[in-house]
Amino acid sequence: FKRTAIALAAVSLALVFLTFIISKTVLPNALALPAAFLFAVSGSAVKYGSNVEVQGFFALFVAVFALCGINYLRKPGAFNALLWGISAGLCLQIRSVLFAAAAICAALMFREKSGGKHASVFLLPILLMLTPWVVRNYHHFGEFIPFEKSAALVNIYTATLGMDGCIGNSEVKIRDAKRNDLFRYSQAGVRDVILKSEIRKNLTSSPQTYLMGVIRRLMKYFFKFPLLLPGLILCFAKREKAPVFLGLFCLYYIFIRSTMSAQDRYFFPMLPAVYAVSFYGLYALWASKIAFEIELRVPDTRTISIVFLALGLGLYAREVWFL
């Protein structure tokens, strides 16, 4: 228990540190420090980062993914593409929400010189890291299952009913009594087929219920972080690579989570980038009025990324060993 508590506390502290490092890539220290401080005192780092579930570790790897992305955009190269791919692979071990983001990043690499090589190097560790999980699932279930999927289907199904909160598989209720009984006493594969059928039926019969829920969740996120929208606008207005990347990353994650029922903890992994983008809006507007800077020496972002990726790969190797 003590070792678990120490590990979770370390995850929370690491998230505060990474919030500062990510913010520092687009902000002076004088604003990057307050961004990390607000993230720390908001309580999210302690509440979710020290949770015994996987949310804290996933947030940690998402932050490293963002940092590796900034490293690649600053200096495109095969090694930075490899680091970015490893970070994506670690994220996908826990949640599949970044799968589309990884595919988009690989496609955008073709805009760079030697982009095809970089994209291949980026995708290689993702495929290698997913392989043991795919083999294990095929051996146990006889199906190609690269990611967890039932939870996402449940969250999309409840969203089509107009619900915002998450529920477990045991709490799912299908309106038709016979299908509900079939769902309750069936195996996972049959349950997934039933949920997909119900999702299509609900979207066809009442699309406005689902769309209003998406809009409601989008507005909730922007109201909760009032500086985020101005920060996003100024990120795109300045057209600098790192701020634009962080802005697009925030929008991607917010949109994906808004398409399904989700508790606040599912938005938690995006908070380091959200605080960085929010403070970037202040910096873009009042950069000329910030008359002081705080001198701090920290390792370069690639070194920091390598350290966290090494720790992540150690955890990954342990999990693969026990598959």
Give an overview in words.
- This protein is an all-alpha fold.
- It is 74% helix and 0% strand.
- The chain is globular.
- The two termini are 23 Å apart.
- The mean pLDDT is 85.
Secondary-structure-derived class? mainly alpha
First and last CA, distance: 23 Å
Silhouette:
globular
Number of strands: 0
Helix content: over 70%
Outline the low-pLDDT stretches. none
Instruction: Tell me the series of helices and strands, N- to C-terminal.
Output: HHHHHHHHHHHHHHHH
Q: Kindly report the average pLDDT value.
A: 85
Count the DSSP helices.
16
Question: Cα-atom Rg, whole angstroms?
Answer: 21 Å
Relative strand content: under 5%
Major sheet characteristics: none
